[in-house]
Amino acid sequence: MLVIGCGHPDCGDDAAGLLAARRLREMGLEAAEASGEATSLMAGWEGHEDVLLVDAVLTGAPAGTIHLWDARSAPLAREALRCSTHGLGVAEAIELARVLGRLPARLRICGIEGRRFGPGEAPSPEVLEAVEKAARLIREEMPCTNRE
Amino acid sequence: MGPQGSRTTRTVKVDYLARVEGEGALLIKVRGDRVEDVKLKIFEPPRLFEAFLRGRHFTEAPDITARICGICPIAYQMSAVHALERALGVAIDPQIRLLRRLFYCGEWIESHALHVFLLHAPDFLGYEDAIEMARHHRPVVEMGLRLKKIGNHLVSVLGGREIHPISACVGGFYRVPSAGELKSLEEDLKWALEASLETVRLSARFEYPDFEQDYEFVALRHPEEYPLNEGRLVSNRGLDIDAAEYEDQFVEQHVKHSNALQSVLRKRGSYLVGPLARVNLNFDRLPASARQAAAECGFAVPCGNPFRSLQARALELVFACEEALRILAAYDPPPEPRLEAAPRAGRGCAITEAPRGILYHRYELAEDGKILAARIVPPTSQNQRRMEEDLRALAPRLLEETPERMTWLCEQAIRNYDPCISCATHFLKLRLERA
Asked: Which of A69, B196, B266, B306 could form a disulfide with B317 if both were Cys (CB 3.0 to 4.6 A apart)?
């Protein structure tokens, strides 16, 4: 399984995906990081059958809520993944790949609900707690002999 | 999002302008048939990179400034290294010069392919976005994605990684590629050149609004080359200066509605930078293949129609691929990847051509190589006033259009510039009021 953490390191809770990827690496697991720009993301998962994207989301749920969506089964609510300022972000990558037949055989989204996204802001305590929880949940699924 | 109001008072409001990098807002007020006010609002907080640079060693500047933008980090690195090398009196190896041009070609290919195919083409083909367009024009989107990927790959070979590359430094590169590494790019770039020529042909099939403007085009001009890293700064109204004279001619102004400063020519006001300006001022420096493709497609200079900036980008894709292939063929790895630059007090300015237009850097250094002052003027700041003026000219022509089409065309007029609001500081929301 390829894990890609998406986000911006210096925009508050938008760092959630990157922090989860870093935490997984601390646990001895492999996890990639991406800014969330659509074309690079699509190139990043090319050739992988099983992909899990971790990203900050805004659905209106309490901050720190962890969502798990199957991106192959139905189009995603694009508004939930609008945390990026890129012209084309994570939601566009998934929907464009769906139209072009470039989705991995299995693509899931681990969304971490954020509440503050200002430049220079620190991630919220709720999100930091959720990052740790998400990393542990992902670890349960990942085959690796070098765990903490 | 959408239009509201009576026959004489109408408000068209778009809360999120799609397909631009970063975030901002636009307000247009129309009373009767008169446009009362146009404001491109950039409310994102300033990011203060110039202040971060003070007190840092000059060797850190290329990596710090590359963080200003995820789409055009090489432009920041190139303007930084050239300005610092001028301050330090460093003359680089000719092969390093070629590698820097090649590096820049990679950024132009990835940035132009993203904008032409995924952000701008949907406007001309009548789709809400690239996803809808892909349902009906799959080969076009696939071609754009492959082109962008080739640009990204070129950047990662030279820069160590695609986003925020880490190899460029004052005096050269921390690591230069072997001839074999560059040779491995050749087949992809040959495909990219053909795809770029096809892009020019594709762009000729789009319908462009009749909207010719009287611009002062500003771009670099080099005695022999299409400009990337070097040249004098020229315009179609007599400007012809060295980068060191930039601040004598241009001034940044603060306007209340924008956190990004607006740059204007001291004597003449707004001006246009970017692909359309470059192509107008340097058409004769484009490779013969690009000039021939332009002629076959009915694109001629002077061209003051900002909607045709898509065609200028397509022509520059042809140039970037041809130039990259030329450099690959001539590449002989330099004896040293970089020249050591000894610290000294000094002042250096440089302008390079970012995908969206000229990018000015100035540094003042202390004897120990610490940065005393830095000044950065990104292309979107330079085009910001001109974007507002385009809208001021365009809006009165759209009063007979449906409100939906009027809004669509105003958004498109912004997208003509491929603005990177994140660079200029970052969110664009469009609000059109009729009062």
From this structure: B196
